[in-house]
Amino acid sequence: MHRHDIGDLAGGVALVLFGLAGTAYTLLHYEVGTIRMMGPGMVPSCVGILIAILGACVALPAWSRSQSAPKIAWRAVIYVSAGVAAFTATVRSFGIGPAIFLLTVISARADREASLTAVLMLGVGLALGGFALFRYALNIPLPFLLVPE
Amino acid sequence: MSVKFSATRRGVICGGASAGLLSLALPALGQTAWPEREVKVIVPFAAGGGTDLVSRLFAQKLSDRLGKPFFVENMAGGTGGSIGSRELARSTPNGYTIGSGTSSGIVAAAIDPGPYNPLRDLEPISRYGATTIVLVVSPSMPVRTFAEFVAYAKTKPGLTYASSGIGSANHLTGVMLAKQAGLELTHVPYKGEGAAITDVLSGTVDMIFVSLPLGRVHMESAALRPLAITSAQRFPMFPDLPTFVELGFADLIVEAWYGLYVPKGTPDAIRDKLVAEISAIRRDEAVLKQLIEQFTFDARGQDDPEKFRAYMEAELARFRAAALAAGLAKS
Amino acid sequence: MSGDLTSNILLGLQTALQPDNLWFCFLGVLLGTIIGVVPGIGALTAIAMLFPITLHLQPTSAIIMLAGIFYGSSYGGSTASILLNVPGDPNAAATCLDGYPMARQGRAGVALTLVAGGSFIGGSVGILLMMAFSPLLASLALKFGPPEYFALMTLGLLAAAIISEGSMVKGLAMVLLGIFLGTIGTDVYTGIERFTFGSPSLTDGISMVAVTMGLFGISEVYATATDRAENVARQSKITFRSMLPTWDDIRRAAPAALRGTGVGAILGILPGAGSTIAAFMSYSLEKRLSKDPSRFGRGAVEGVTAPEAANNAADQTAFIPTLTLGIPGKPTMAIIMGALMIHGIQPGPLMLTQKPDLFWGLVMSFWVGNLLLLVLNLPLIGIWIRLLTIPYKLLFPAILVFICLGVYSVNRNPFEVWTVLAFGGLGYVMRLYGFPIAALLLGFVLGPMVEENFRRTMIIARGSPAIFIERPLSAAILVLAVLAVGIAVFSGLKRRRAAFPVAE
């Protein structure tokens, strides 16, 4: 148990900072304009201030309330993110085949007990299946394998 | 601020250009036999839109005539289709990636020369054809002719006109007319012509400079009243509608045209072949009929790449002047 | 008119029941269902991609097929929402809120059955309205000017804060954060790029599909990929009985479906509103009307049927302005209009008189399509819930593949997949700390429209806010919005007072 409600406190403070930073950036870069001819800065700066106010409303009561912080599933976050990142980084230059394969084998590692053979097979299966689904059922031709120049 | 932004954008383009140079070093392709495999046609707008439909028509005809598939790939986004067009500019100039472009690319470059300029980044081949823009007013406005409109607008400064977006050809047409006729008009931008015309139909906004293919049905059903057209000559489909040129605005000619481009450095033989093929397709009776009836085109394309380029340069200069006058132009 | 109606229906059925058209209708709704189930790709991408094929078809068959894909995808979109908490489409995001809790209680089959029923009701009533009142409804679309849109979107935003779980302050904060994120991209009025930091991928704003897939889809995978207990709970027994709703379910769900249909039918007509908003607004209406709002978010059947009826009704009525006014209200409708135009047909006021066989054939094909969807989807439920027996360790990589592939295929821009990842992280943190993701999504969807229409109103009214009250329709909607907030605050206070001793 924490002495404060860490989630709301952190979330509220983050909102205050985001709102203030957003408003500041807006005011520095975009014109606010008049009510008749509003500039691009009017809405973001007002919304930013409101976000900061509501953030404070979330954070302040959280100080005097205790609540344990929820646990983050780090293993899932790391492997899943790494898998998606691998897909994104490779899909354009290598095609969807390798990208799906990498996404599958990396993200599947989030499960501690995943066996390597099963994961590799799943990777190949999803790469072929995903390609076939998009190419033949949906008529969206995405290149399967590319050899970068 | 905007200067800083366009500097970074230029950085991106330089990167793209050097990638293009690298790929030039690859083995030269057999040019006589082009196309030996399928050819990708990048359309920088979404499927189903005007550019897409015209491009698909020509791609189909090219496939039929040259025996290899010409397939359309839509890559929408950016002002004037800049995202897809930049992708085209970055593609290997071997004739296997070609693409479409429109007058909106020129208009976008007139406003902000930084991100993309078809004249600078691409090689024009031919103009498929063009449609035009009409001034239509809501029937609630008590005017029947352009002369009545001008008189009315002088007594009521601040009449509103809708457009498909800031810096669009529809918008700049309004800017040019207001300046040349000495009127005070208020611009109301929308996201796209469809949304814009809705508020004119309901009378919330007074008028719109609308592209003919979208405006046509509302003109035929008399939901909107056309006053003048921006084509150089009267439009065959609406022979009674006066042009702005006739009404005394000599350079108020705005065409919404569509054309074919290739990446810079594409071999001459391929370019010549494309020019010849497009020219032949445009002379096909069935194609011509489809272009005129369905796309509301006038029949005039442009088959000479040099004349097409000169035309684009003149357009760029004209729109640049209008954008500067409207305070929209970026450096 | 009503005498005409019979002959028009017969004319329409004649067209719709031609073997060719029947086949393409089936093909369309089948594809639509698949597209709906696969996260990421929505009706827009699918229609855009399949559009070229239809160039070689008869115009009527072509439009029937494209339309089938469009409304079929709404049927399928809810499947993944219920089973996996990953909406197949943004318009199925509202269905996650109660559909997934139902699945966790072993009631996935019931949820899917109710959704099929609710969708059918929504779709059918939408079509009936279209048959009887097309010209009238079309004129309603024209009554909505910028002030009315602003009022309506404001009502939607306040509804978003109301629907959120837990504190209304957090809900409002998330709505506002959504609005702020929605301002990213080119400003409609000045052409200035806001918060794009020079990236051309941001000039059109953040992709709504990417935001939805990240907030709901990826964050769900983060939350459950390593959760073993969750995996066990999924493998519940599947019997035919487990798919049948109880009488109590039906008693609650049926009126919700009808109300959802009403909300959806009206919002569908308005170009620019759309089915995502319809789904969320009908959800919040149900929560507002419920005697016990705390059931929502914990598997309330009304929370599943109402949004599904709404988005299906909206999909049907969306054709009204397109076909009868020639106004393409949304990108999908623009493509369908393009398809009509390439076949030499000009949608608009004249279409009803010039091409009655096409118009009525299309309308009757919607009926056929909705029936086909029902017939297609009911047996599929048995197969879908079997998905839950697949171990999650094999399922979640597949979910990721479909999300990434689906989002990437829309514009082939890897940036959008990075966006998914970023919003996945944000969604996960929000989930952990109890910040409502639905409110953020709704703020993101509605925010740009609120801003756009407010600024447009100010230009037209020359800076005088009085216009909002002077126009009766916008005044009425704004009164409704104020009432909604008033009731929410009042009942919130009442509940708080009641709960006070317990909380301390």
Q: Would you kindly provide a brief summary of this structure?
A:
Chain C: The chain crosses the membrane at residues 21-51, 63-84, 110-137, 149-166, 172-190, 202-223, 265-285, 358-385, 392-410, 430-451, 472-493. The complex is a heterotrimer of chains A (149), B (331) and C (504). Helix content of chain A is 68%, strand content 0%.
Oligomer: heterotrimer
Please report the distance between the alpha carbons of the first and last residues of chain A: 57 Å
Overall number of domains of chain C: 1
**Overall geometry of chain C:** globular
Radius of gyration of chain A: 24 Å
| Strands of chain A, count | 0
Give the number of domains of chain A: 2
Uncertain runs of chain C are 500-504
Query: What string, H for helix and E for strand, traces the elements of chain A in order?
Result: HHHHH
By DSSP (H or I, 4+ residues per run), the number of helices of chain A equals 5
Give average pLDDT of chain C, whole number.
86
Main sheet specs of chain A? none
Widest beta sheet: strand line-up of chain C: 1-2
What structural class should be given to the helix and strand makeup of chain C? Answer: mainly alpha
Structural class of chain A: mainly alpha
State the major sheet of chain C. Answer: 2 strands, antiparallel
* Most extensive chain-chain interface: A-C, 70 and 70 residues
- What fraction of the residues of chain C are assigned to beta strands by DSSP? under 5%
Radius of gyration of chain C, Cα only, in angstroms? 22 Å
Instruction: Spell the H/E element sequence of chain C.
Output: HHHHHHHHEEHHHHHHHHHHHHHH
